[in-house]
Amino acid sequence: MTEIIKGPLRAPAQMLQEQSYDGHKSLHDDAEAERLGIKAGPIEGPTHFSQFVPYLVEIWGNAWHERGCFSSHFLNMVFEGEKVRVEVDRPAPGATRTLCRAFKEDGTPVLEASASIGPDHGETLLEGRMKKLRPAENLVILTDMKVGLKGVADETVTMGPDQHMGGLYPFTLNDKLKVITEPMDVYTDAAAGAWGKTIVPLEMVSVLGNYSSRTAKFPVKQPAIGLFADLEVRMVNGPLLVGETYILRREVVALSESRRVENYWIRTKFFDKTGTTQIAEMLLNHGVMKASYPHYPADRLPA
């Protein structure tokens, strides 16, 4: 029987109330959320990743920070004041892959994920999900998006400890570390790891990865409000380091839709400052809510 590691309940903080993009508020604003039938602005999904990290480091050691992959499908939103606990299946000795889950205090599932250690990850949870995507037909918000479309240019990014991360992420790394659910020495003490600098927490990789995303100029019609439906963060030659400069390259790798949402999947690769050595990559499924786009054909909106 598989041993299940069970973490304690934690209360994650909502830090995106002031998020904005393309001149409008996001789903994380209470008023915008309520307009779209959601009771309040949800906590950003990657926040929950931090609760898994201590257990994955226990299983795989510092190799997790260097070659780990966390591949997650979000199931239900979490709101400020709600508590979350996580579970990790303990893999057999020598195994390189396992499964993870998160739940609210009442048992409502929050996310499911695969966690693995590279270089051979096998099929991740999101790779399996992508194989089963419902083909996108007659997209409206994403009608100009095409699989294979790349960002217009390389993007240069860094994350300093007190660097404000822009309209998409209106806070700093140090702001996050004050409320992170699982503090770890490698986030605050360069001497705690073997990399000469502190590391970017797993939940902050998407912040670094999306910081400059608007410069890719992907043709998503606006105004429209999106959310993270799936997120995979993979270290190739990691970890990502605080204060280090990285080159990002993006590509649309899939388009899909459901009854309420149009989806575009972006793979973002992180390279060192020379642009030659890959450090990490991120696979993000953006779900754009059909009802948030004022020009969406009324007869194609769900009742």
Give a written overview of the molecule.
The strands form two sheets. This protein has a ten-stranded antiparallel beta sheet with strand order 1-5-6-7-4-9-12-11-10-8. The chain has a two-stranded antiparallel ribbon with strand order 2-3. 14% of the residues lie in helices and 28% in strands. It has helices spanning 30-35, 53-60, 63-67, 125-130, 173-179, 185-188, 205-210, and strands at residues 4-6, 20-21, 24-25, 68-74, 84-89, 97-104, 109-117, 155-157, 226-235, 246-257, 261-271, 278-289. The radius of gyration is 19 Å and the shape is globular. A hairpin with a 7-residue loop joins strand 5 and strand 6. The chain has one domain: Roll (Thiol Ester Dehydrase, Chain A), CATH 3.10.129. It has 303 residues and is an alpha+beta fold.
Topology:
Layout lengths: L3 E3 L13 E2 L2 E2 L4 H6 L17 H8 L2 H5 E7 L9 E6 L7 E8 L4 E9 L7 H6 L24 E3 L15 H7 L5 H4 L16 H6 L15 E10 L10 E12 L3 E11 L6 E12 L14
Antiparallel strand pairs: 1-5, 2-3, 4-7, 4-9, 5-6, 6-7, 8-10, 9-12, 10-11, 11-12
